[in-house]
Hints:
Number of strands: 9
Protein name: Glycine cleavage system H protein
Subunit structure: The glycine cleavage system is composed of four proteins: P, T, L and H.
Family: Belongs to the GcvH family.
Number of helices: 4
Keywords: Lipoyl
Function: The glycine cleavage system catalyzes the degradation of glycine. The H protein shuttles the methylamine group of glycine from the P protein to the T protein.
Strand content: 25-35%
Amino acid sequence: xxxxxxxxxxxxxxxxxxxxxxxxxxxxxxxxxxxxxxxxxxxxxxxxxxxxxxxxxxxxxxxxxxxxxxxxxxxxxxxxxxxxxxxxxxxxxxxxxxxxxxxxxxxxxxxxxxxxxxxxxxxxxxxx
Length: 128
């Protein structure tokens, strides 16, 4: 059974979002996504400063099973990437809601977060 933290927001493509105190949003993939992927061996992240549209491809996760796109859940500008994933992509498996985060974004419209799924809705979405 997947862990689905209540304080996060979720999207159908299995990314999670955490609103930070400074108004930025941290994005990663859910525990459910990393379970489906299996052992992650490579992560490609967006460039800092990139302006991404909602649902635009932001990167790629490669595992022993498959490659999967990472999508940007809200439009905005990339503020930071998790450079640790370049050397240790397995962090996305071991700590998907912690050290395995992917990137931070400054949302173009913070109100867009209100339209995303909460933990209960995501749990229903994945049949948990």
